[in-house]
Write a structure and sequence with these properties.
The chain has 63 residues and is mainly alpha-helical. 59% of the residues lie in helices and 8% in strands. The chain has a two-stranded antiparallel ribbon. β1 and β2 form a beta hairpin. The termini are far apart. The model has no long low-confidence stretch (mean pLDDT 89).
């Protein structure tokens, strides 16, 4: 699924950027060498950041 149509970024690319350390939307774009255009994708990208980072944080808190 395309997350950012303007830059042709797919969900897998966004999730891989987050797994690689991109913890903000701006860093996701930077990881792919592009910038936001219409900004319709920002909410979806934030959700992916939360989904990818939150499980790790929750596991650490449980220990």
């Amino acid at each position: 699924m395309y997350v950012c149509v303007c830059n042709g970024l797919r969900e897998k690319q966004v999730r891989n950027a987050v797994k690689g350390g991109a913890d903000t939307v701006g860093r996701i774009f930077k990881a792919h060498g592009c910038k936001p255009d219409c900004a319709q994708c920002i909410g979806c990208m934030r959700d992916f950041i939360e989904e990818e980072i939150a499980p790790t944080d929750q596991l650490l808190a449980a220990e």
